Amino acid sequence: MQKLVVAVLLFLGTTTVMHSLSACHAVGATAAGDGSGSSWSNRMKNLPATLVRGDTYYLADGDYGKYTFKTVNSGTTRITVKKAQAYDYGRSSDGCSNDISAGWDQGSMGSSQANWGEFYGSGSVPQPGYLTLDGNGRSTIPGCGISPTTLTSASDCGLKITASIGQDSDFDIGQNNNDGQHRSPSWTIKYVEVQGGGDANNGAQSEEEIRCRGACDNFLVDHVYFHDTGCDFFKIPWTTSFIVQNSYIKQNKSSATCHGQLWYSEVEVSNVDFHSNVIQDIQGTGLWVCLTGCQASNFSIYNNVIWRPSGSNRPGPSNGILSCINPGNRCTNWSFIGNDVINYTADYAGALGTHCDGNPSTFIWQNNLFYGITPADRIDFQTCGGSLTEGNNSYLNSGTPKSGTNSSDIVVPSGAPNPFTDWPNTVFTLASQNADWTGGQALNAPYNIDFVGSPRPGADGVWNRGAFQFLGTGSSGPTPPTNLKGVVRP
To answer: If residue 106 lies in a helix (H) or strand (E), which one and from where to where?
Structure first.
């Protein structure tokens, strides 16, 4: 999937908007020259212990070990750590106030990834924030521009975190602070590959791809390829405003000693936005889970593809896609809207809906497209005396939901056509227009655009259910690229 980028220049009278350039530094796994970082010929070895706020650090290919980010905040001034690429390696045209390009060698510095074994975010109070980790990719496909069904390198994710077996967390932010008083604000992680311990971890120790121990307010995850975690992908307490978008999240491990989840919240969490992601093979308690005294509000989960590959025998969740479990927990205004759930399963009947224990919870469940869910009774809804707004969903070849459906839903227990272009090969766009997946409820922003930014309803006035709006075989727009797997326009 490629998007057209249109640059619009606005001239308002004689006003000129000036953008200051940042000082840039060249960093390698080995030093060169005087080691100052003033150029690639004089690159420094590894990131320094204290970084300069407002500056940009370019990383060459190589292995960098583990790093602890502990540069204290200075207002909202940001630090950027960026992978050097053929198209961006520290020239004035790349936004640097000082040109560091002397000595640049594409073959040895910009052809692979910069890899850490773990990235900590801990140190002085207040906890350090205002950090961008940028792998400097350019693909518009979720994740890093690859097909995660193959073993090809995530080359568009220039930065990588690789966990060792039994490692607690890949990104460990706010280490040793669990009170919500030591907050780590405004992190951005984009075009990064994060690889966990996988099935070999065997649940012997909890493992999270991103663990926030204090609070990670205003956190953005964009175009990240997470895969093979030993337990959970996100463990996020205390936080206000966390966005995950345009990412590929693949496969976790769950066991008796570490119950896996996609997302795991404790205590107070609010304003979570999780959209336009591809999510594969999540097992354990549930996908989005609130437990251990959790009070979680305003979760907006939309335009995602949740799927299990054809032929996979990996288990699914045991409670629900949305799970608010343990007495005392409360989930308020959790929305699951316009998602595709394909070829999925669960450990227990009903565990692909909503689940709660104790306090009343409020869920919204609209415009979703379920296809090929097994066995037949996998969707059930619990609110614990709260409320469920459910409607305009399609349950195709998925049996009959146990509860919650109404006359606006389309339920075809078997024999429904396949809606998708080629879902076994990760092409999840709608192959055609069909009454089985039309008739979505008209909703306001952000739900009035689809996975790739197409407006809802389409030009034909139809609002499709699921993550994609059908554009029609004769629609205008950019021609899709060839030889790319991922989400593409029809």
So the answer is: helix 106-109
Could you list the beta-strand ranges (E) of 339-386. Answer: 340-342, 354-356, 362-366, 369-371
Give the integer Cα–Cα distance in Å for 484 and 145. Answer: 8
Backbone angles phi, psi at 296, to 5 degrees: -120, 130
CA atoms within 13 A on the CB side of 460: 15
The tokens 């895969």 sit on which residue? 227
| Distance between CA atoms of residues 269 and 299, nearest Å | 9
pLDDT in tens, the chain (490 residues): 333 222 222 222 333 334 478 999 999 999 999 999 999 999 999 999 999 999 999 999 999 999 988 898 999 999 999 999 999 999 999 999 999 999 999 999 999 999 998 887 665 445 789 999 999 998 888 988 766 655 445 568 999 998 776 555 677 787 655 666 678 899 999 999 998 877 766 544 557 788 887 788 999 999 999 998 888 899 988 899 999 999 999 998 887 777 889 998 988 999 999 999 999 999 999 999 998 889 999 999 999 999 999 999 898 999 999 999 888 889 999 999 999 999 999 888 888 999 998 789 999 999 999 999 987 777 899 999 999 999 999 999 998 888 888 999 999 999 999 999 999 999 999 999 999 999 999 999 999 999 999 999 999 999 999 999 998 863 333 333 333 333 332 2
Task: Tell me how far apart the terminal alpha carbons of the chain are, to the nearest angstrom.
Answer: 9
Across the strands, what pairs with 369? Answer: 340, 394
- Please give the structure tokens belonging to residue 107: 């073959």
Query: For residue 420, what is the enclosing H or E element?
Result: strand 420-422
Domain boundaries, the chain: 259-490
Place of tokens 């999925």: 344
User: Are 488 and 1 a contacting pair, CB within 8 Å?
Assistant: yes
CA 431 to chain centroid, in Å, comes to 25
Q: CA nearest 88: which of 144, 156, 148?
A: 156
Token pair of 434 as six digits: 């069909």
Residue among 380, 421, 348 at smallest CA distance from 395 = 380
How far is Cα 183 from Cα 179, in angstroms, rounded to an integer? Answer: 9
Cα–Cα distance for residue pair 34/53, rounded to 1 Å: 23
Residues 6+ apart with CB under 8 A from 478: 2, 3, 4, 489
Burial of 327 (0-12, 13-18, 19+ CB in 10 A): exposed
